[in-house]
Amino acid sequence: MAEEKNPDLPPDEDEDIIVEMIDAEPITYTTTTITSEPIIASYSSSTTIKSEPVITSSSSITTTTTTHSMPIIHTTTSEEITTHSLPIVHTTSSEEITTVEKTELDEKDTKANRIEFKAPLKPERPVKMTAPQLPPQMPSLRPPPSKEAPKSKHLDIEEHLLQPHEVAERYLSSINAEKPGDSKGLDAETAKRVLAEHGPNVLTPPKKRSAFLKYIDSLTSLFNLLLIFAGILEYILLGIDFEDNFPNTYLGAILIIVAFINAFIEFYQAQKSQALLESFLNMIPAKCTIIREGKLQPTAASELVVGEVVFVRMGDKVPADVYVFAASDLKVDNSSLTGESDPQERVPYNEHKNPLEATNLMFNGTLAIAGEGYGIVVRTGDHTVLGQIAGLTAGEDKTISPLAKEIDTFVKIIATIALLTAAIFFGIGFPVNNNNISLTLNFAIGIFVAWVPEGLPATVTILLTIAAKRMASENVLVKDLQGVETLGAITLLATDKTGTLTRNQMTVTNLWSCLNMYSALRNMQNVDNSVKPDSPGVSDIMHISALCSRAQFDRTDVPIEERQILGDATESGLVRFAAQNIPNFDQLKDIYPKIFEIPFNSDTKWHLSIHKKKHANGDLTLYIKGAPERVLRICSTILVGDGTQSVPLTEEHQAKYNETYEAMAGKGHRVLAFAQILLPSDQYPQDFAFDKKAKNYPDHDLCFVGLASLEDPPKHGVREAIGRCRSAGIKVMMVTGDHPLTAEAIGRKINLMLSDTKSMVAKRLNKPLEEIREDEYNAIVIHGEMIDKLSDDEWDNIFSKSEIIFARTSPRHKLEIVKRAQSMGHIVGVTGDGVNDSPALKKADLGIAMNQSGSDVSKEAAAMILLDDNFASTVRGIEQGRLIFANLKKSIQYTISHSTPEVIPNLLYVVVPLPLPLSAILILVIDLGFELFAALSFAWDKPETSEGLMKLPPRKPVTPASIDRFRRRAHRRAQEVVVDPESGEEIPPSKFSKLLHEFKQPFRKIWWTEAFEKTDDDVLVDGSLLSWAYLEIGMIEAIGAMTTYFVVLNYHSITPYDARELQRGVGGTTKYFTKEAQPYTNAFGTVIDANAQVMALAQAQSMYYFAVMIQQMFNLFACKTRFTLPIGKYMFSNVYTFYGIFAGAALATVIVYCPPFNIPFGTEWHTLPLFWLIPFAFGFFIIFYACIRMLVSRKLRPINWNREIQGLQMYPTIRTVRSMEKKR
């Protein structure tokens, strides 16, 4: 359930505000404004006004020239188009006209009120912002760049300007505006004919980039292009020397095929993610309710036609564009269409020309969040407003996750090293190989292939896919694969309370009336004060709960305990409580019919209803229930005694009220107040016509009846889940619309708040509040009214606390909280289920929506969805995210370890020179054969210890040093941003500009300074990993493989000296190591003929390949641990490790020992297995070295475990009010 917005804010303060501070010289700007409502321009005392602010009337044009010497904050309605000479910050509300030119206004009037959208004006020359103009403290608060809208777009809709009967006549429909339920609607024959003429009510899918082009995008990544280029070079060599290079055709084909396979894997996973996302963006509901031929019936939304009379009620998604001709407190959420998150009231009349602002139109795809109404369908399918402006909302640029950035950086570094090394050694090898371009180019390709881990992109994608499937089994659905790891990296989790931490199942616990407290639960200890229907004032509270409510039972033919309630959770709890205590509850609304009602809203914070209920002075009774502070404010008397008399409210009564309210809210209960007024017949006769607009109903001098507290118990597992989050170093905040006392009490039940707040410390130490230092308390509760007044330093102080609760917040506040946290370097996760949560969900690094209770808008905005609505699933997702990062790191560490034993033989081939120990095609077999199977097995690795992952700090912890570093870097990047001086929005750079910018970075001192700046971050590829792979294990494997290589050659009577001499003599007439080679006599007089030379080299290369594979088997186990020694039962915990080893070893055996494969791969099946012992010995040495390295590392760099948090309650949250009641 969406959190309630702060009721104490005026309506205009509920708008989203983006503030960009501009510290510049005084400037003059001209504002041309077209308004439909009066606009009052206001300025701070530090602002110099050259001309007076002008209050304009509807459709007037005002030009105001203003000079400022301070940052400008300009407030307008969204109907304005404002032209500035520098970026001016402005806020936007829902009163909006998009066109700006006066000629356009005239044109609009002459075109039957068709609305034309104009693109914003762009500057002739971009302005590069200098450092003084940028916000050094909060760089993340810059307004995000937005896409340019199409240059013209018409909304072909004008029915909002007509009367209901005119619309009905136009579409041949029959309506009854007085009694909408008696409307006839269309007849079946007309509906069938219109459906055949206009087609089904479905949206044409937006134009998408074709699957072929998407595949090409994947194919043209840096890795794949390099592989294709190397493959093409092999075929060019074939043209130069067909006979000698013919075997390399296999290598060229494999390189190109690998590129296409890598691209296909990436493309396939992207298509799957796209399909998943589209399943959550279905704009048309499956069913809707219509009146056809006078009968109310459900129908498929796709069969809806213009002229149909539809019935929409709370919770429905509007199936088409609908003209409202009857409504009862109907409110819709247009945020998915207009971005306005505040509920919009819908009534049968309209005063606006802009259809997007019309109060009698509901649009396709929006949500009815309150009330009910009847309307006529005026547009379907592509003709709806949603269909007409689809081009404006299609597609968003994909945000690159931290993981993707790290992988991309690593790939660029490796590709650069590979290309430079290949180019350098091509130049060195050319003279060494007697200017043989074919041979030297093959060598350069071998160097390149050795450096590049060709299977890495596919390995990472498959690992993330496996992890996403595993998270889905934990009821965590990830839309984007990168979100899998992002969840494990979050440092701050902001969550709402109702429906996320609590069950959203309200149960009445206590009543307070006539200055007496009553218990509503039989099992509580104060049995003597248990509630009874005849207790003073209790009957009045029950009647107000039952009558002043919109909740209702789904049926009346079964006992109350078996009924389901349709309505708000709070009202549902009150109605169920009243139904259990009022004998004639089902007839109560007929006995006391409702004649007037004002539903609950976030402005008044109360619900008012008037009923025909006689009393001594008249026939009508007014009831109100709502927020206690609001209800008490409009009361002048209080019910006392036996409940039949009232007395004026005094300070003593106020003190009793405050004491009771704090006691109820202090237990974490939601508290509501009840009031009534017996309307005198001389002022309000029975037939009095109450009018909401005229406000001719009493809203003051009411009689305060009492209070009721309702408990919304925490969900099972929430307390342990939050405890585990905090143990993992993740800061968990509650952001709620509830009262601070209620929020704090719930927080203390669920491990969210354990220590004392500032006021508690002051009370404990008996000191004034002002004398308490910041370091003396670590818990803070912030009221929503304070948020707008907080300075940057105060925000920093708040986030320095470990236990934070924001109460009485609005959606704008939640968005501001997310932005402030991100400006400090936090990776923010936000949970939410309501429409109003969607801005924060979208802004967060990872938005987490609820599946069952969440609105469609929140699901669309979020990157992750909890299928079971259980907060505990988030914690399981965090653990899985951390696990996949650890496994990815281990997989990369293992994968690139074979690069050194692949590169070194190629270098020795040129420098010494030696016969090539490892051919390029065998390098590919290593990378894409055994290595791929083994690397994928890491996906199923379990954590080293049961709680180890969740005892470590986040991989990018937020500390004072990291905050300073983050802001410095953000400030430097902001200086390079080019902005549009018209709108203040960032102008995206071209692809060429991006490439040029990246090319320049390594030549700047600041780039190297930041690259080697010491941090506590745990990145995917760090210095320790590279040292392990390239300098430590890589060198050990290279030595082991070269030893095996020389032993095999020596077995065939070729010593290292002979190998060098033979290689020096390659070419010319000797043709060593070929079938036409001349015989060679070694130092011992042994003659080695051509066949012996070819066999010796083939067996040596085969064993070099086999040696790398065997040593990598041991390295596979050595890479598995980070905190423990690579020995013991953990090595056997992942059965897929052995499957991977078996598959890779089987492939290697086939390549070496199956004669048909000897030809393409240049191997020799006569190779003795006895030579395996050498790499096995080096493999055991690798395990020994890993153990020594682990012990030394522990001594030099101890593991930075999180400190234990005192007071965490980690036992299950099973005992709840409801479960205890059932047990009794």
UniProtKB/TrEMBL annotation:
This is Cation-transporting P-type ATPase N-terminal domain-containing protein. Keywords: ATP-binding, Cell membrane, Membrane, Nucleotide-binding, Translocase, Transmembrane, Transmembrane helix. SUPFAM superfamilies: Calcium ATPase, transduction domain A, Calcium ATPase, transmembrane domain M, HAD-like, Metal cation-transporting ATPase, ATP-binding domain N. It is a multi-pass membrane protein. The chain crosses the membrane at residues 215-238, 250-268, 410-431, 443-467, 907-940, 1028-1051, 1136-1158, 1170-1192. The lineage of its organism: Eukaryota, Fungi, Fungi incertae sedis, Mucoromycota, Mucoromycotina. Residues 127-151 are annotated as: Disordered. Signal peptide: none annotated. GO terms for molecular function: ATP binding; ATP hydrolysis activity; P-type sodium:potassium-exchanging transporter activity. The keyword Oxidoreductase does not apply. NCBIfam families: ATPase_P-type. Residues 158-239 form the Cation-transporting P-type ATPase N-terminal domain. It comes from Jimgerdemannia flammicorona.
